[in-house]
Specification:
The structure is a single chain. This protein has 488 residues and is mainly alpha-helical. The chain has two domains: 355 residues, no CATH class; 88 residues, no CATH class. It is built from 23 helices and four strands. A four-stranded mixed β-sheet has the order 2-1-3-4, covered by helices on one side. Helix 22 links the parallel strand 1 and strand 2. Helix 1 runs antiparallel to helix 4, helix 8 runs antiparallel to helix 9 and helix 8 runs parallel beside helix 10. It starts with a helix and ends with a strand.
């Protein structure tokens, strides 16, 4: 009977994994992208594991995986990198399903939680472009799986695996430092209660160090090159984000936008199940430690994202959305799974799919209302309402069209200045696709190895070497010039 249940569980896990993979692969961006995604594509093309934006933004594990994928000779290079996020997102959803299934021993609450996260706007949006967020969430859900299994079985192997996964998560994104702090307190409590011994902590620490090795290597390297304190600041804040990371002020605009983000990720009455799950968590938790860690993660991830002030702060709610989805599954288990509520189960399942029509309708309504979006509205070949409010990227080729149009207007041996949004599609088309090798592309500041920057020479020096063009951020759909010659 146990073997049969185990086989059924494996089959269910694989089914959820494949279903999520189909969703994200089918909606994945097919080529080069703008902004951070374009930067990641460029960095991986140059095998640049560290970047130049500070250690907190290096994300070495993600880039090492990307470099490995780079050498797989199948399909478009940029598409392969975008698929990393899709595959990691599929594992996130499967891990979430497995967590609830092992915890509650029921399929339907696990399915509701998995569908809720899978269709949440910000998670889906970052599952189909080159980004490191879904790799982090896959590791976070793996950590919580190991924590659950340890609390249920008291087997040390699960704490060892928890440490390894958290180390890998640190190597991918400094988000993992929040979970790390929670696990340290959890382990300290176990040590005080004599449930683990110092030798166990030694193994745990060793496995964590192994997992975090890519990031640790960069930290040690930078300590030798720059000193301890500059390296510590770089590891915590990057080169220029100290004020954003440490911000404690809240404006009315910030609060309003954050609540809009939250509502748009769960545009369904099912979100009320979160409060039921929060209220009933103590009743169904397999142990006090597990409940405390979940609540601590929920509060800390929410607090970090809510008062963060970077332009793309909506993405930093993603770990919080993972915890919300878990509690929605718990709330469903407490309120809906009784035998006399079969009709209500189907209603809740139908409501879980409500985000899809919401994402179809919302851009149309928002555009008519001229709703102010937290995006850069001057990017050519991009309707920002559709770009931001619809998470799928099927057949999107705006960045490639933009680069082709720029290249058509340039004279031979020109120098092109582009900002950090516009520069990466140009570099991709030149270096990966082999277009216009005669021109030189420069940017405001280098975020990766090998990228020439304006500060390397004065504008007069660049002009002395040939014609210099600047990319104009105008809407490509209006068919206006998108480059102009400096000095004309």
């Amino acid at each position: 009977m146990r073997a049969l249940n185990s086989d059924n569980l494996k089959a269910s896990y694989i089914a959820v994994l494949l279903a999520a993979a189909v969703l994200y692969v089918a909606t994945c961006a097919p080529g080069p992208l703008w902004q951070d995604s374009g930067m990641y594509q460029y960095r991986i093309w140059h095998n640049d594991v560290e970047g130049r934006l500070g250690l907190a933004l290096s994300h070495p594990l993600y880039h090492l995986i990307g470099i490995a994928v780079k050498y797989i000779p199948l399909g478009e290079f940029a598409y392969r990198l975008n698929l990393i996020s899709a595959v990691a997102a599929a594992f996130t959803i499967a891990n979430l399903f497995l967590l609830l299934r092992l915890w509650l021993k029921k399929n339907l609450p696990a399915i509701i939680a998995a569908v809720t996260l899978a269709l949440s706007h910000t998670f889906w949006r970052h599952a189909v472009i080159a980004e490191d967020y879904t790799l982090y969430t896959a590791l976070l859900l793996a950590e919580l799986l190991m924590l659950l299994q340890y609390v249920k079985t008291k087997r040390m192997v699960f704490l060892y695996l928890l440490a390894l996964f958290n180390g890998l998560a640190i190597a991918n994104h400094m988000w993992a430092a929040i979970a790390f702090a929670c696990y340290v307190i959890f382990l300290a409590a176990l040590l005080v209660q004599k449930q683990i011994r110092l030798r166990h902590l030694g193994v745990i620490a060793g496995l964590w160090v192994i997992g975090a090795a890519p990031y640790e290597y960069l930290v040690v390297k930078n300590i030798f090159e720059s000193g301890f304190w500059p390296t510590l600041a770089s590891a915590l804040f990057g080169n220029e984000w100290r004020e954003d990371v440490l911000n404690v002020g809240l404006s009315a605009r910030l609060v309003k936008e954050n609540f809009i983000f939250l509502a748009y990720n769960f545009p369904t009455p099912n979100c009320l199940l979160f409060f039921a799950g929060l209220y009933g968590l103590k009743k169904v938790s397999p142990g006090r430690g597990f409940k405390n860690v979940l609540l601590a993660l929920l509060i800390l991830f929410f607090a970090f994202a809510f008062r963060y002030t970077v332009p793309d702060r909506y993405a930093f709610f993603i770990p919080f959305y993972c915890l919300v989805s878990i509690l929605i599954g718990v709330g469903f288990n407490l309120l809906i799974t009784s035998p006399n509520r079969k009709t209500l189960r189907w209603i809740v399942l139908a409501l879980a799919l409500l985000p899809i029509p919401t994402y179809i309708i919302a851009p149309v309504v928002a555009q008519r209302m001229q709703f102010n979006l937290p995006t850069r509205a001057d990017v050519p070949y991009r309707n920002d309402y559709k770009w931001f409010l619809r998470p799928w990227r099927t057949s999107y080729s705006g960045a490639e069209k933009f680069a082709d149009e720029v290249f058509k207007e340039l004279d031979p041996d020109a120098v092109v200045y582009a900002d950090n949004t516009m520069v990466y599609p140009l570099l991709y088309m030149q270096e990966v696709k082999g277009r216009r090798a005669d021109i030189r592309i420069i940017s405001e500041h280098a975020s990766s190895e090998g990228l020439p920057v304006l500060s390397e020479k004065s504008i007069e020096q660049w002009l002395s070497e040939g014609d210099v063009y600047a990319v104009s951020p105008v809407d490509g759909r209006k068919q206006r010039r998108i480059v102009w010659k400096i000095g004309d």
